[in-house]
Structure formats: structure tokens, C-alpha cells
Amino acid sequence: MNVGMTRVRRKLLLVGDSSTLCKHPFLGELLLYGEGVGAISPN
Length: 43
Hints:
globular, 3 helices, mainly alpha, single chain
């Protein structure tokens, strides 16, 4: 995951169930950030 996050140049596509992913400390923070900047639909 580290290489994928640090070498992204334009877009990062994360596919998964947000209710499951938010339980992971790092991915949960990433989802919160994405929602805060309007990059993630809060479905």
C-alpha cells in the first residue's frame, strides 16, 4: 500500500465497501479525507 500511495501521480482508485474499509485505521482516515475534499461519494 505504501508504494501505491506515495507514487500516485494523478488518481488513486480504491474499490471496496466503505463500512468495512473504515474499520482499518489507515484506510478509515483516507476515506474521511476523501469525503472531506469531495472526492468520495458518502453512499
